Amino acid sequence: MHDNNSESGTKADIEKRNESYNAYVKNVTPKGSCVAKCFKAFIVGGCICVAGQIILNVCKWMKVPDTDAASYTTLILVFLSVILTGLNIYPSITTFGGAGSLVPITGFANSVAAPAIEYKKEGRVFGIGCKIFTIAGPVILYGIFFSWCAGLIYLALKLIHVL
């Protein structure tokens, strides 16, 4: 037989623990205005996009063909993102700007470079080699997979003369 006092004591202990935990979570959860966060994300994302546009305009001013100018812009933005990640500046930008720093090309470069830097102490093979794609790996995997699926659908539509 079970003792009712021990069961109710246990339930009371669990409720007390849950209340204590909820109070702790409420205290440590960052507080902030959604409008302020959106504004910061807008500013940071906008600055990254403006930097990309400046690079693109400089390339065009130097008479670089449009397709090459776009490629150079992408390469320079990735390079700058990796350098800023290595200098521990990009994480500060992300802390301030939140999702605004996830502008696709720079955020992706950061997600590849950050684990490489973090795990370099574990060695080149088991540290950098194994863990470099921990964040970016699923993006690469599913990006390639769905591109392959889209290619098959496109091929099938071409074969049945829909496209």
What descriptive keywords fit this protein?
79% helix, extended, 7 helices, mainly alpha
Tell me about this structure.
It is a single chain. This protein has helices at residues 4-28, 34-61, 66-86, 90-97, 104-118, 124-131, 137-159. It has 163 residues and is mainly α. Helix 2 (34-61) packs across helix 3. The protein is extended. The relative contact order is 0.07. The mean pLDDT is 86.
Give the SSE layout.
Layout: H1 4-28, H2 34-61, H3 66-86, H4 90-97, H5 104-118, H6 124-131, H7 137-159
Helix pairs in contact: 2-3, 3-5, 5-6
Report a brief summary of the structure:
The chain is an all-alpha fold.
Structural class by helix and strand composition: mainly alpha
**Shape, please?**
extended
Per DSSP, the total helix count is: 7
Strand content: under 5%
Query: What's the mean pLDDT score?
Result: 86
What characterizes the major β-sheet? none
List how many beta strands DSSP finds.
0
Measure the end-to-end span. 74 Å
Helix content: over 70%
Low-confidence stretches: none
Please write the string of helix (H) and strand (E) elements: HHHHHHH
Radius of gyration: 25 Å
